[in-house]
Amino acid sequence: RNVSTLTILVMGKGGVGKSSTVNSIVGERVVTVSAFQSETPRPVMVSRSR
Fold first, then answer.
1. Chain centre distance of CA 20
2. pTM (2 decimals)?
3. Which parts pass through the membrane (predicted)?
4. What is the DSSP string of 1-50?
5. Alpha-carbon distance 43 to 15, whole Å?
6. What is the structure's pLDDT at 31?
């Protein structure tokens, strides 16, 4: 079976690296990150296809 869609949910406290993890998984900067403060105050959905 060929699966072309993968859904990943990343949850956790603010400022712990969720956005950096998402960027790493996707392989490009799709979510803003900051070394000094939490940058993503609301849910973000990122979609990529092969």
1. 7
2. 0.71
3. none
4. -------------TTSSHHHHHHHHHTS--S---SSS----S--------
5. 14
6. 87
Q: Which two tokens stand for residue 48?
A: 């990529």
Structure-token pair, residue 25:
């998984």
Instruction: Encode burial over 17-35: b for 16+ CB neighbours within 10 A, e otherwise.
Output: ebbeebbeeeeeeebeeee
Domain layout of the chain by residue ranges:
1-45
pLDDT digits (tens, 9 = 90+) for 3-41: 677 788 898 888 889 999 999 988 999 888 888 777 777
